[in-house]
ATP citrate synthase (Linum tenue), 272 residues
Amino acid sequence: GKVRAPTHIISTISDDRGTCLFYSRREEPCYAGVPMSSILEQGFGVGDIISLLWFKRSLPRYCTKFIEICIMLCADHGPCVSGAHNTIVTARAGKDLVSSLVSGLLTIGPRFGGAIDDAARYFKDAYDRGLTPYEFVESMKKKGIRVPGIGHRIKRGDNRDKRVELLQEFARTNFPSVKYMEYAVQVETYTLTKANNLVMNVDGAIGSLFLDLLAGSGMFTKPEIDEIVEIGYLNGLFVLARSIGLIGHTFDQKRLKQPLYRHPWEDVLYTK
Ligand code: ACO
Ligand code: LMR
C-alpha cells in the first residue's frame, strides 16, 4: 500500500493549493475551508475572517460585529501612549515601517493593552468559583497581583473610558448573556471604593465580554473555551487593532519629516 511520509508541519486554518474543494470546484485559496470567492459573495468582513482564521468557524453576525468594534475602538489612542510613543521615536530615528511598527507593538504587555487574556482568565476563574468581587479583589491583593483589566493612567470614576461604555452597550443589546461582564462591573464597583483610578479599562471590558461571547454564542464547547482562554487568543485583538494606529503614526512622522527625537534634559531627574 501507500506509505505516507511524515510531515514536518501540520496546518489546519488555511490552504492555498486550490484543492479545498468541499464548497467549490474552482481552484482557489480557502480560509478554514471557505473559498475566497464565497467569502466575497457572502459579504464577509474582517470579523468573519478573524472567526475563520483564529476560531476555525463562522460566527454569528453579532459576534463578528463585536470583534470588528473591538478592532475599531482599539485602533489608536493618541500619540502619548506607550506603543505610539515607541513607534514615533523609532520612525524619527529614520527606521522603516516594519521596525517602527514592531517597536510600538513590543510595548504591548501586562500593563499596556496586553492584559486582555489575563483579565479573561482571572474574571472567569473568580466567577466560576463563585467568589464575590470583594473576595476576588482581596485575594489578588494578598497574592500581590494587580487585577488585570482594572486601572488606568488617565481615566477615572468620574471620567470613564468611552470605549468601555460603547462595548458594554453593544453587548447588553446584542449578547444573549453578559454574566461575566456584569461580574467585572461589580469588581469595578468595589475597586472604585478603593481608588478613583481603578476603573474598568478597555482590556477588562474586552476580556470579560469575550468570555460572554464564547459562553453565550453556543458555538464553542466548554473545553474549547478553556483552551482559548488558556492559550490566550484575546491579546491578539489589541495587537491587531493597534497595528492600524501604529502604522498611521509611522506615516504621520514620515509625512511631517520629523527629525531625530532626543528627550529634553529638563525632563529627566538626574540623581545618585
Ligand atoms: N489592581 C489593584 N490595584 C491596582 C491596580 C489594579 N489593576 N492598578 C493600580 N492599583 C493600585 C495599586 O495599589 C498601586 O499601588 P502599588 O504601586 O503599590 O501597587 C496604586 O493603585 C497606584 O498604581 P499606579 O502604578 O500609580 O497606577 P497607574 O495609574 O500607573 O497604573 C495601570 C495604571 C498600569 C493600567 C495599572 O492600573 C495596572 O497595572 N492595571 C492592570 C493591568 C491592565 O489592566 N492594563 C491595561 C490597561 S488599558 C490599556 O493599556 C489599553
Ligand atoms: C490605550 O488604549 O492605549 C490606552 O488605554 C492606554 C493609555 O494610556 O491611554
In short: The first strand starts at residue 14 and ends at 15. The chain is about 55% helix and 0% strand.
